[in-house]
């Protein structure tokens, strides 16, 4: 009735319990590490931290580093439970998260590591947009505009009556938090009727083929897709000059308000370990060159030096506790606290 | 009356045939376009170093070594955990359980569980295994979560396979004075094992592509080491692909395509084995 091959297979299967021995053998070939560093958090800081970890590994193969991408909020959740040593964050820690850190007794050191310019882009087919002001961006993106502002003409009279299609970051990303705070004045306040995606490549595809499209995402995604997109310079106010985002304008704070700093947060307990100290020192020494390599804008050298000083002194807490991140001068803020 | 015969039944028959063929063709065409697109993009990237390199910020140096190791480890533990529980539940429900309202209720729930979105299992696993049981973001947490995910499929296919064993076999065994356990062990299980195995392999090929629950239970993205045991951190191939597709550099898209080819190969091999076993098994038992 039954085929003999299958019966044989079934007999073999009764050795199932032998399989259970495998993990024990597997476990017994451990390699000794000097230390393990667990990092998790924002997917926008991830490329930089990955690059630093990769370079660090070449010199310190005995220190094991792993990096996750749970998002800024998800990363902080783990960080504030003491599960990770370092948290990548594309926005400063929020007041609610600070409260949790106090009840959980987690102290941390905040370190800005690079800038990310947020590019405002349209399709190359769009010939009428020469620049855009922050007020105009607000008219497009504010929650009150939902369902009402549907044409470019409604934003500026000289623009034609072309349907306005918006593309932007998904609600759980740090990019969304920053953009809404910078443009609409309040984090997470945005109209909801736009094409949202956590994957910026989807936004690139969407905007590039849509004559009435306008989107925002990290500058690196524009740089990699220059041929498919048109970059729009931003005017802070009607009188000021229209500024394109690039390394120099972002680094020197001229591209406002859409230059956002990215951070890493180090648990104070971990910061006392020598191998974490080595890693942070390495991070701040190489962040400048590696940031450029992965498509971000480095901070001024003075900020890296100051951050390292603050780290070695163990200055805990966030400098953004009662201060908005938008338009912040990092050098001033950090040195004020010293 | 007249309208009914506007198109003769014969041509209706023909039309339906063409329509059905078109539908099938459309599905196959979509699959073909996807496969060709992935193949063209990714095949150039597949070479030995792609399998042996660690993750890197340079797309051309980046490899899937640790992701592959993590995936194999993850699947190993998933199967080891889901197998006995799934098969034994199936045996109980089919051979021992009474046919009452409770059994009906359990049956409906198991079928429902098979359709629950995988990310829900991830959230359950996060609370149950990662936090409450304290396993952290280890392979074990991931494997337990995936085991929950594939368990309903294993239970259902075990029951189907056991149901297909003719009663005459059981009666013959009882007639010889065998107990129920002896009958199940020596007659029912060997006779239905092909079907059970098919179910296990198919459910494994489902588990292999799962990304959402793994992200929730804490699979990482940059893991430059092979996991050292069931309690170690890990990454998996689908996570690596997901991570690559969201990067701005074009090179990572090529890597993602290459990763997808490897993942597809795995699924094809698993599904192929399952189909082979099923055919063999049906041929032997259908007599």
From TrEMBL, chain A:
Known role: Involved in the system for phosphate transport across the cytoplasmic membrane.
CDD domains for this protein: PBP2_phosphate_like_2
Family as reported in the entry's similarity comment: Belongs to the PstS family.
SUPFAM superfamilies: Periplasmic binding protein-like II
One GO term (biological process): phosphate ion transport
Domain of life: Bacteria
Keywords: Phosphate transport, Signal, Transport
Protein name from the UniProt record: Phosphate-binding protein
Region forming the signal peptide: none
GO molecular function: phosphate ion binding
Alphabetized InterPro entries for the sequence: PBP_domain, Phos-bd, Phosphate_ABC_transporter
Every PBP domain range: 35-284
Pfam families found in the cross-reference section: PBP_like_2 (PF12849)
TrEMBL record, chain B:
Membrane topology according to the record: Multi-pass membrane protein
GO biological process: one example: phosphate ion transmembrane transport
Example GO molecular function: phosphate transmembrane transporter activity
Keywords: Cell membrane, Membrane, Transmembrane, Transmembrane helix, Transport
Keyword Membrane belongs to the record: yes
All copies of domain ABC transmembrane type-1, residue ranges: 68-274
Superkingdom of origin organism: Bacteria
Any Pfam family matching the protein: BPD_transp_1
PROSITE patterns in the record: ABC_TM1
SUPFAM superfamilies associated with the record: MetI-like (SSF161098)
Entries under InterPro entries matching the protein: MetI-like, MetI-like_sf, Phosphate_PstA
Any one of the GO CC terms: plasma membrane
Transmembrane segments: 20-43, 63-93, 105-129, 135-156, 187-208, 252-277
UniProt-annotated location(s): Cell membrane
CDD domains: TM_PBP2
Record family assignment: Belongs to the binding-protein-dependent transport system permease family. CysTW subfamily.
PANTHER family: PHOSPHATE TRANSPORT SYSTEM PERMEASE PROTEIN PSTA, PHOSPHATE TRANSPORT SYSTEM PERMEASE PROTEIN PSTA-RELATED
Listed name of the protein: Phosphate transport system permease protein PstA
């Amino acid at each position: 009735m039954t085929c003999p091959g299958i019966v044989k297979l079934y007999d073999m299967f009764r050795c199932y319990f032998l399989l259970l021995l495998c993990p024990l053998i597997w476990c017994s070939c451990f390699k000794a590490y000097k230390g393990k560093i667990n990092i998790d958090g924002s997917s926008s800081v991830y490329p930089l931290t990955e690059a630093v970890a990769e370079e660090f590994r070449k010199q310190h193969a005995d220190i094991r580093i792993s990096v996750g991408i749970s998002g800024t909020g998800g990363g902080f959740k783990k960080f504030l439970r003491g599960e990770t040593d370092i948290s990548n964050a594309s926005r400063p820690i929020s007041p609610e998260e600070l409260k949790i850190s106090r009840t959980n007794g987690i102290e941390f050191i905040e370190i800005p590591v690079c800038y990310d310019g947020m590019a405002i882009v349209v399709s190359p087919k769009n010939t009428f947009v020469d620049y855009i002001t922050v007020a105009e961006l607000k008219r497009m993106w504010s929650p009150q505009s939902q369902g009402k502002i549907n044409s470019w003409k409604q934003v500026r009279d000289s623009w034609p009556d072309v349907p306005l299609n918006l593309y932007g970051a998904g609600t759980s990303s740090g990019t969304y938090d920053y953009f809404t705070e910078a443009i609409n004045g309040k984090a997470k306040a945005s109209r909801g009727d736009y094409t949202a995606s956590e994957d910026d490549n989807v936004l690139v595809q969407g905007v590039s083929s849509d004559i009435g499209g306008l989107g925002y995402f990290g500058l690196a995604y524009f740089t990699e897709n220059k041929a498919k997109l048109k970059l729009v310079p931003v005017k802070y106010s009607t009188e000021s000059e229209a500024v394109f985002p690039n390394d120099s304008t972002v680094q020197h704070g001229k591209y406002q308000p859409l230059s956002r700093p990215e951070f890493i947060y180090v648990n104070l307990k971990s910061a006392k370990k020598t191998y974490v100290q080595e890693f942070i020192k390495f991070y701040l020494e190489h962040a400048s060159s590696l940031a450029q390599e992965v498509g971000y804008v480095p901070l001024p050298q003075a900020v890296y030096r100051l951050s390292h000083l603050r780290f070695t002194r163990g200055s805990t807490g966030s400098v953004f506790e009662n201060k908005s991140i938008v338009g912040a001068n990092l050098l001033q803020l950090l040195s004020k606290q010293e | 009356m007249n309208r009914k015969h506007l198109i003769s039944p014969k041509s209706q028959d023909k039309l339906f045939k063409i329509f059905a063929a078109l539908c099938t063709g459309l599905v196959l065409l979509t699959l073909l376009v996807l496969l060709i697109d992935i193949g063209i993009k990714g095949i150039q990237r597949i070479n030995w170093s792609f399998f042996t390199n660690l993750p890197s910020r340079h797309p051309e140096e980046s490899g899937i070594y640790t992701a592959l190791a993590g995936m194999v480890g993850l699947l190993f533990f998933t199967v080891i955990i889901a197998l006995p529980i799934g098969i034994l539940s199936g045996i109980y429900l089919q051979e021992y359980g009474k046919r009452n309202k409770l059994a009906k209720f359990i049956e409906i729930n198991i079928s429902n569980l098979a359709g629950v979105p995988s990310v829900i299992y991830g959230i359950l696993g996060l609370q149950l295994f990662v936090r409450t049981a304290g396993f952290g973001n280890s392979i074990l947490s991931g494997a337990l979560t995936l085991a929950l995910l594939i368990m309903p499929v294993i239970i259902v296919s075990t029951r189907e396979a056991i149901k297909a064993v003719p009663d005459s076999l059981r009666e013959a065994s009882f007639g010889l004075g065998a107990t129920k356990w002896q009958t199940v062990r020596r007659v029912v299980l060997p006779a239905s094992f092909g079907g059970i195995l098919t179910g296990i392999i198919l459910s494994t090929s489902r588990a292999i592509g799962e990304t959402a629950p793994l992200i929730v239970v804490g699979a990482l993205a940059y893991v430059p080491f092979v996991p050292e045991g069931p309690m170690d951190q890990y990454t998996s191939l689908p996570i690596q692909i997901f991570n690559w597709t969201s990067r701005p550099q074009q090179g990572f898209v090529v890597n993602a395509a290459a990763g997808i080819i490897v993942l597809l190969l795995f699924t094809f091999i698993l599904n192929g084995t399952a189909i082979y076993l099923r055919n063999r098994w049906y041929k032997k038992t259908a007599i």
